[in-house]
Amino acid sequence: MQERTSVNNPQIKAIGKLQQKKYREESGYYLIEGFHLVEEALKASVKYREILATEAALSRLAQLGLAYDEGKLIKISQSVASHLSSTKNSQDIFMTVKINQSEHFFFSYGKWVLLDDLADPGNVGTIIRTADAAGFDGVILSNKTVDLYNPKVQRSMQGSQFHLNLIKADLPDAIASLKAADIPVYASLLDPAAKQLGDFAPVAQVALIIGNEAHGVSPEIAALADEKLYIPIKGRAESLNAAVAAGIMIYHFS
């Protein structure tokens, strides 16, 4: 087993840079942290380069009874674990996972969520996790939506990235492909022409467009939708959080 005790080790420096989008794109790998994410990754048999963990964390990993490549284990010091961690309370275990996003897509069935330029990592991760819980097939992220491999998105997804189809795409192209497969596309927005969510019956296939936290669904994308819908506000709040609104709609159509 390899061992890394210094934060100045070239390999550790390179892995630490995976916290930044630029280096994730250059290397083709991203970093996940914590036992739950590592466990979900191993269960999903994802491609990974190495598992890094302190001695105590390696002992716990061995007790999980999961299959992993012992040749890819690296024992690290507590100082290295603290250096790599993006949280205050690290679980001292990390994995470098291969980025596996197809640039090509074809929709023939299913239930999908489309994210139109969402900026908040917590919202994006929560929506993906909710779509997973509700049995949806996948989530399509616009090119300007926050990076899927952002550490905050990873923590919010809680491993759901290993259960769903996650696609980064130009939304007009994705919507055209969904429509070609006879999958109805509904946009969530406040609009005089929009209908209440309750007016829609659950359907076998659907695609739901969720808009940016500040600006909502863009007019260009909204114009491509088959229908526009909204969630009635019964109290005095002006609007719902994007992830909350998405969750209500996702479960309505699940």
TrEMBL record:
GO molecular function, one term: RNA methyltransferase activity
CDD domains: SpoU-like_rRNA-MTase
Domain of life: Bacteria
Keyword S-adenosyl-L-methionine: no
GO biological process: methylation; RNA processing
Keyword line: Methyltransferase, Transferase
Entries under InterPro entries matching the protein: Alpha/beta_knot_MTases, MRM3-like_sub_bind, Ribosomal_eL30-like_sf, rRNA_Methyltransferase, SpoU_MeTrfase, SpoU_subst-bd, tRNA_m1G_MTases_N
GO cellular component, one term: cytoplasm
SMART domains: SpoU_sub_bind (SM00967)
UniProt domain RNA 2-O ribose methyltransferase substrate binding: residue ranges: 31-103
Pfam families in alphabetical order: MRM3-like_sub_bind, SpoU_methylase
Family statement: Belongs to the class IV-like SAM-binding methyltransferase superfamily. RNA methyltransferase TrmH family.
Classification via PANTHER family: RRNA METHYLTRANSFERASE 3 (PTHR43191), RRNA METHYLTRANSFERASE 3, MITOCHONDRIAL (PTHR43191:SF2)
Name the UniProt record assigns to this protein: RNA methyltransferase
Lineage of source species: Bacteria, Bacillati, Bacillota, Bacilli, Lactobacillales
